[in-house]
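Below is our example:

___
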Amino acid sequence: MNRQISYNWLKEYIKSTKPLKELAKELSLKSMSVERIIEKKPTFAGVVTAKIIAIQKHPNADKLRLATAETGQGKQTVVCGAPNIEVGQIVPLAKEGAILHQDGDQFKINKANIRGVESRGMLCSQKELGIGDDHTGIMILPAETPLGRPLENILPLSDYILDIEITSNRPDVMSVIGLARETAAASGSRFNYQEPKPNLKKVGAVPLSVEIAELKICPRYQAVVMTGITVVPSPLWMQFRLLASGIRPINNLVDITNYILLEYGQPMHVFDYEKLAGVGQKNNKKIIVRKAKSSEKILALDGNVYNLNSDQLVIADIKGPVAVAGVMGGQDSAVDNQTKTIVFEAANFNPVSVRKTARALNLHSESSDLFEKALHPASTKSALLRAVELTQKLADGKIASGIIDAGKFSNKKVSVNFNPENIKRYLGIDIKIKTIKDIFSALGFSVTGSKTLKVSVPWWRQHDIEFEHDLVEEVARIYGYHNLPAELPVGSVPVVAKNQQFYWEKEVKAVLVGLGFAEVYNYSMVSKSILSKTGFDAGKCLKISNPLNEELEYMRPTLLSHILQNVSDNTKNFSEQKIFELSNVYLPVKSNDLPEEKLKLTGAIVSDRPFFDIKGLSALLLKKLGIKNCQIKPTDQKCPLWQPGQAMDVYSGDKFLGQFGLVSDKILMSFGLDRPIAIIDFDLKTTLGLASTNKNYQPLPEFPSAERDLAVIVDKNVSWQEISDLVSSADKLIESVEYLSTFIDISIGADKKSLAFRLVFRLSDRTLKSEEVSEAVKKIITKLEEKFKAKLR
């Protein structure tokens, strides 16, 4: 997460004589990385401040108006289409010849005739001035702005913007104060921070009570009522600090909450007190922190209506929700130009609750982003005091209630024992105890002791500092990793035991890639629709309780669904395909335990003869894995996945290794495929359990072999594997049996086929006689006739 922070703002909290680039370098080396330094300076010219004294309708255009502006040196009338201009406003006026911005390019203001009316200038938006992205209306300047002054002399534009990357485990640094503390510690500068001290004297008594119904989700809720409010634009210094951080100024009250979010890293919200529903004759207001009711809705500040459910936390009055807790406020209780009495809230919410709510509503904000990173309940106090202080200065606000502090949370201090001698063991360098103490103090830690230090962790670091090695890391980074000695390690190199499963997975992938396959990676989650395409009942699969979307609703029970979808997606670009995926599938178990995870290998081939290709792949893979004595048998014809008669099961002994074959036409049609596709689907955990790197080497034979070719006619349902197994064991003279071809023709019978194969005979101690070979062939033919009723062709 990146923050863009004004350097002028940052300097208010650090005292340093070092140049900006050196500070940025120190911060990057020892803390958060400064990605860019952006210089801000006026890029416009010829723009002055002016007061709108009259507005007339354009005679020839309904959406245009004629605005007369007084500059102090004269009046000027310009054509304006902005909807937000009113008489009495102070605005930027670009005179004829002025330089402005449009889509990143500069342009010059010339005299123009707009619908029959001459215009010698224009009123300017933030975007046209190059100081912000808002172009929905004219930029409104504070009422005390002097007239006729060059705008660059009025606006605090000269600044540098630091674009800083902040790691998600450090929400304390997602603020100006947190960054200043880190910068001071990294650069050896002084951290110049004082707690806000507003005037807490009450003027009157405006009733407000707070009730927290969900203490586990909202451990702390602070609020205060302020009255006598004047809603006006924020002063320019505040507006430009917000603009520098990418936040559009709205009015002084809303801007104060956004300013504190940036300054303190604590989200806040402001309610119009009068818009909250009250109870009793005195209309006493009550804020309730509770879960939403299933039928409740809220009109949020973004203008959209959101349907709430009973898992989502809301801030409510006695009638209904006025804010989605930790995410966004409601429109019906928002402050406006007529607001006189307000309620500031500064609260703490459970990060998981905020994350789930924001995701369920698809509603994200700066506040939700911070709350999701687990803020500490102690952060609300300073933020609320700062809000009171700024409101007293910028909106004439006065305290009208005590500061309400509701909730229950542990404020126990966390301490970690730290042995300085461990610095040498971890970092290979001796660092003086005084230096270690100074580092801890600069980061806000309290330190006591001399030999073994007791380090008290400040509340803003309690989520990431728990153990002694965490403190070693703090010392190392502030001391400077670049200052640690670069030495070669001493000692024997540790030997890591080989993980057999990872080794064989790598070997399997190497075999497949060597055969021209491409590996694919798919999500572990699948949709109901893609499961149904492959014949799986989603009701028997593991359903995710909080899926990212409906396409990722179930844990996959097979790799096949995504593999076929991959093939379908690639069909337009590739006539032939070879892809595979090696990953886990997830199967439900009977108890409430974790699902059963199975390692699977699934591959697909699209080619001219896919069945033979996939069969060859299976045989080669088993050979490379060193798995012998495998049996290949026809698979269950009732399985809807396979084309009838075109699928085989692979066994090693009684262990089932997997299947291969052609996918059924019905499943292919469901994926929009019209070509035969062969699939290999292996239980890789079982298969790899039988894998072996052992290889048996035999000397080259001394005596020649004898070969005979046979062709036998058998029933169509007799597989080559059955023939091969029988022939191989028929006689001790047989060295090998090689498949040659299959012939099917009506001339040999409608339900028959001819299998041709080659027999190789050999003895290791002498040359075979032809009579011995002939006798062995007769024995083989006899056995084939007895078992399969085979006929010699």
Summary: The chain has a mean pLDDT of 91. Residues 770-788 form the longest helix (19 residues). The two ends are 77 Å apart (CA to CA).
